[in-house]
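Consider the following input, taken from an annotated entry for Holo-[acyl-carrier-protein] synthase (Enterococcus phoeniculicola ATCC BAA-412).
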Amino acid sequence: MIKGIGIDAVELDRIEKIIREKKSFTARVLTTNELMLFNDLTLHRQIEFLAGRYACKEAFSKAWGTGIGKINFQQIEILKNEFGAPIVTKSPHQGNVFVTITHTDTVAIAQILLED
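Applying the prediction step yields:
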């Protein structure tokens, strides 16, 4: 049974500005494991990665029904499976969590589906 669906979009230029000006933001949003992936990327891919993970975590909070605030970014972790696709590896949800991320030249969009 579907418990919730969430979607979020993030502008890449906004994330680029944040990466350059607010160094603490990245560590606030990304878990230690996500940061390890992030640090191995070029700047362009870092922007896409952070925007995508931020969108995922916002989408999760919408599907969860609380928004960010009742849960925090560190409670949700999105890594990669063996094929490179995003997979939620940590969250407060006890059932299945499905995630998809897409990027354009200007936007990252993520959708989360929670299933009991």
